[in-house]
Amino acid sequence: MYDFLTGPMLYLSLAIFIGGCIWRVVWYIRGLDQKLDRVAYKAHLEHGLKHAARSVIAFIIPFGSHTWRAKPAMTIATFFFHFAIVGIPLFAPAHTTLMDQWLWIAPLSLPQSVVDFLILMFFISAAFLILRRVALPEVRILTNWQDVMVLAITIAPFITGVLASTHTGDYQFWLNMHIFCGEVMLIAIPFTKLSHFVLFFMSRGQLGMDFGIKRGGLKGTKFAW
Amino acid sequence: MPQGTLCRALPVQNEEELKELLADTGGKKYYAEMQELDVNADKLAATLQKTLKSRLRTWLNICAKCGMCAESCFLYRIHNRDPKQVPAYKIQTTLGEIVRRNGKVDNKFMQHCMYTAWAKCTCCNRCGTYCPHGIDMGVMFGYLRGLLFSQGFVPWELKIGSGMHRVYRAQMNVTEEDWVETCEWMAEEQQEEYPLLEIPVDKEGADIMYTCNAREPKHYPEDIAEMAILFHIAGEDWTVPSKGWEQTSLSMFAGDWEACTMQVKEVYDAMERLKPKRMVGTECGHAHRATVIEGPYWAGREDGLPPVPCQHYVEWLAEALRLGKIKIDPAKRIKEPYTIQDSCNYVRNHGIKKAVREVMSYLADPSYYRPMEPDLEHNYCCGGGGGFNGIGMYRKERNFALMTKRDQILATGAKLVIAPCHNCWDAIRDLEEHFAIGIRWSFLKPLVVHAAIIPEHLKPQEEEEMEEEA
Ligand code: SF4
Ligand code: SF4
Ligand code: SF4
What we know:
heterodimer; A: mainly alpha; 77% helix; B: mainly alpha; Fumarate Reductase Iron-sulfur Protein, Chain B, domain 2; Rossmann fold; iron (chain B)
């Protein structure tokens, strides 16, 4: 089982993940329509890209935009959640060693103490996000079973990872589960709303372009995100 | 009954049909017919296939359901934080559902969509700037309105409005003759005070071509007079086109994209015919949006820009005051606290945020300025945008929505509200009528006309001087 999960299954899920993400980006850009979207992308491309970058930057920096400042707790939770989800798979020492072995790439690894802290913050953030979804009427009303599934898919690798690395119960079982859940997440990214992994940059960038080209940018105004 | 005689998928074709619709007081028969109106699911699916591209599909798909957009919507806030007013919820349960069912929806569902699209969203575009993913519900509701219009599910007044544009190329039944006559009449009226004042029609190669909102010739001709006085005082070389003078687009509110194209092309034709150096439009937000911001796309212009540079009236006014073309009499400056209503259509959606403040800095001491909170590009809708003001069936909802602006104004403590947008101006008038909070509201034109110094050479000459000259 372990061999399968770390062999063909690993390469397959990575291929689906990477190929799927590229496909999503290409599909997005090809589907932009100057006339239907009512944004003159081509004529003012450079200008538009500058405003796209402004908009993306305002939103990937904690408290960088009005909306992040308006909801500080949510902002902190969101950022820790995302830092952990991107950072731990790539930079946890347990992963980087394996990446070196299997994929012949060896990224720098984070000190274990930082990883432990991030994992802790991840669980706190996840608990906050779940609580919010249950407790706040404006979030509850939006939630359907797919949203719950997607949340479960993102949290599962962390739970199984902790169980495995702390040798709680059957180590080999939890390790296999951990790898399996991680792969499920990779495969789910292109096909679910997790595609915002790449589409966030497209969508946020597009609105930046929209404001940069059509809604005032050409007049020299910068929208105060 | 698949299609009614008044309520049907087909837009208004001619003047008779328009008159029939108008004769149906309050849209009684129209809405009765709507109860029976069939939905053409195949056509709906085909339209989705053709027009719902990656941007909108992505918006619908990647919505994180995080609810961060909730607080950004003034309608959510004023409705006691009713979760059914969350922008993401409103769009997911209408457009989202139509997409999920690929157009297989029934009459009842379409009516639910119509109510949501016109009574629960003013297309103010505020939520998009707060959603982390940049999902703009204002844009999506605009798209949904287009789908609804194409199936005949549109409020009666807006079916009429778009029909007006189709028949008269104006939002009201103002013909070319009516317009030119009104201009002549207004010019004559002013000549006692400004003997040399003219309203030049169809002058080629002028510096400025002026366009306006049809309700000015129809109901508020003094607006045209004030505009003429200010161009006159400023010594501008200007003109109005006999055809293509109407800048507004109720068809934009209705989602009738074909009529939008017809309307804006008429204005662009005037630009191409008269070749002015620039166009200046009246103090109207949606008119500016229709002709200057969205119009180029309806007209199929690749660069997304109108044929000549275009300005909103407040931009021209700010420039005229800055260059000293118009001077303000210090004795006539405003001496009371005032606040400013920032119109979403040209402040949030076109970045024109400094001009009104600049104009006011000449008209009043800056210490009198009481900003609304929030303001500029983050301002809340006046409560009547996107056609909401004009829909009789949703009057109750609209009046309720006005409370946001009422409270914002009250919090400033100012009694004078500067509202350089026809739609906002109406909403604020209605809110005063409804809630009687003791405020006054004004466009900029009358305030500047009142306070401007008339240059000596433009004043009527004294009798004796005239005699001497003779
Ligand atoms: S803020 Fe954006 S992503 Fe979040 S629920 Fe609203 S529309 Fe969806
Ligand atoms: S566009 Fe404005 S009115 Fe419509 S949902 Fe967004 S914030 Fe609310
Ligand atoms: S009516 Fe005025 S405030 Fe309301 S959406 Fe339109 S421009 Fe904005």
